[in-house]
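Quarterly update from the structural biology core.
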Amino acid sequence: MKKIFIIGASGLTGFQLANLVKNTFEVYGTYNKREISIPECQIFQLDKTDSNKTQSILSEINPDIVIDCSALHNVDYCEEHKDQTLEINTESPKNIASLCKDIHARFIYISTDYVFDGTLNRPYNEDDEPNPLNFYGNSKWRAEQEISNIGGSFAIARTSLIFGWNPHEIAGEKSSSGKSQNFVIWALNKLRNNEPLKIVTDQYSNPTFANNLAEMLLTLGNSDVNGVFHTAGKTCLSRYDFTLEIAEVFDIDTELISPVTSDEFNQVAERPLKPCLDVSKITEIFDGEILRSKEALMNMKELEMKN
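Predicted structure, tokenized:
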């Protein structure tokens, strides 16, 4: 049985990935501050910026695949904590990529649509030149370049607005950069409490169901093709339209949702307005179905009803 090492198994994507592969892989995972227990998985505490401990664990496990699901992804926090952001989002993945090359493990790094400036009049493909507008996107783009230069067996998975269920987020526990919930859980909690929401109409993304992303990451882990892949949901739409879909699928009154534009918010970091991702390339090697936003929300609702 192959070994897979998931850095950040306590996070949204890492948690779904661990549960996806636990019956077909020997699964090892890590948490940093938010402790997690996953049946059939061996879980370690690891701050991935501790290069010595990271090297020790990787050498001991000797995994076939390493997937880094851990990052600082609070965009405004990253803008105000640049040294910490570089350490976690750039330097640590660079170190892990080098260690993976040494032990002949395949390395999968999760990047972001925010490497683009969002000014293109079509969805971005993998050959389009990044031009990040904020430090979060900059830190991810730097990591992409470092990992590509190191070589070995690797894939970079750019994704967008990840959502889904996770025990820590359901409980509202904050991550290292202060985020406690993904957008859908946050919106659901507000709407179910009859709280009005002002949602931007001019910021677009490809909402990506964490369970679907986990399937795409596994495909990349099992592949021998190196390079960048856009691994995101099929639909690109505004946050406002996506919030309307959330309300519709979960049977909530849409009158609580008001459209606004970005200039009405005092956001620390500039956001790209339309960094839509073209997912044609991953489709060529992915056996599953890349979900549209409403399909993914329906799947999320079904999981809630089962639990």
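The radius of gyration is 18 Å.
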